[in-house]
Amino acid sequence: MVMEVHQLRYAVEVHRRGSFTAAAEILHVSQSGVSAQIAKLEKELGTRFFERGPRIATPTTSGAALLPLMARAITDIAQIRQAADELLGLCRGTVRIGTVIGCTIPGYLNAFATFRTSYPDVAVLASEGNSVDLVDRLVSGELDIALLAHTGSLPAQLTSTTLIDEPIDVGVPSGHAWQKRSAVRVADLATADVISLAAGTGVRAALQQTCEAGEVEITPIVEAHSPETVHSLAERNAGVAVLSRSMIGEPLTAVPIVGARQARLSLASRKAPDIAARAFLGLLAPALLTPRDEQ
């Protein structure tokens, strides 16, 4: 019997994603390639893992029994490799990092470049996503490190360093009626054209919690994927921006929101990261904690 690790990984990813198409996108392999490798493994083990529908793949009875074992085997193999590298003092392999969409924080970019130069034998796979997705991918083991925004506590399986912990404010353009106000109520936002980040981001979660506490319902006129877009639209008088305090700069004026919830930006990782991920964290954490005006 010759089972290959990538075949196990393909099967587990199809199970996680619920379809061959979604798994292929994550794995950066063609759908036909994923299907062919899983078919070879099914033939070798003499049983089918999935009922293949037009858009979804549902585990068979055999699949439901075998797929958790495959996931455990992948974890065990990764731990064996990690232990061997630790014993040899080698920094190699792959680091998988996820960031919030449109991340241009200088500390992150500088640390990324330094790591690539310092550890040429380590591949770095970087991707972007909303924070809810990044947390899920960290917990599942798909990511090693993530730079993400959130409001509440992170899952117990993760360890994190908080980089920013501040309330959300409303950013208004020059000449706006709120520009000279000391604060606005959440009820005021219900009468404004609000521009904010999309669902799944820390800022949007903070806005939602602020609205719920004030018993006000707000539907943004624009849901953007980057703070820069929110800021730029507000600069052009398309509406008012709702962002965390440090995201609002000139020419907008930041006005506090009464009872605003906190939005946090954290550097998170799985507990007991391997030697390569630890090396990346060793560069990344100090760079992100350095005041931005010193970078």
What do you see in this structure?
With 295 residues, the chain is of the alpha/beta class. The chain has helices at 5-17, 20-27, 31-45, 61-88, 106-118, 131-140, 186-189, 202-213, 227-235, 275-289; strands at 50-52, 57-59, 93-100, 122-129, 145-150, 158-172, 194-197, 222-224, 240-244, 253-256, 262-270. A hairpin with a 4-residue loop joins strand 1 (50-52) and strand 2 (57-59). Residues 291-295 have low confidence and may be disordered. It starts with a helix and ends in a 6-residue tail after the last helix.
How is the topology of this model organized?
Elements: H1 5-17, H2 20-27, H3 31-45, E1 50-52, E2 57-59, H4 61-88, E3 93-100, H5 106-118, E4 122-129, H6 131-140, E5 145-150, E6 158-172, H7 186-189, E7 194-197, H8 202-213, E8 222-224, H9 227-235, E9 240-244, E10 253-256, E11 262-270, H10 275-289
Parallel strand pairs: 3-4, 3-5, 7-8, 7-9
Antiparallel strand pairs: 1-2, 5-11, 6-9, 6-10, 6-11
Helix pairs in contact: 1-2, 1-3, 1-4, 2-3, 5-10
Helix/strand order: HHHEEHEHEHEEHEHEHEEEH
Helix content: 40-55%
Kindly name the structural category.
alpha/beta
Gross morphology: globular
Tell me, rounded to a whole number, the average pLDDT. 88
Fraction of residues in β-strands: 15-25%
Tell me the number of helical segments per DSSP (H or I, 4 or more residues long): 10
Unreliable spans: 291-295
Distance between the termini: 55 Å
Beta strand count:
11
Task: Describe the main β-sheet briefly.
Answer: 9 strands, mixed
- Rg over CA atoms, rounded to whole Å, is 23 Å
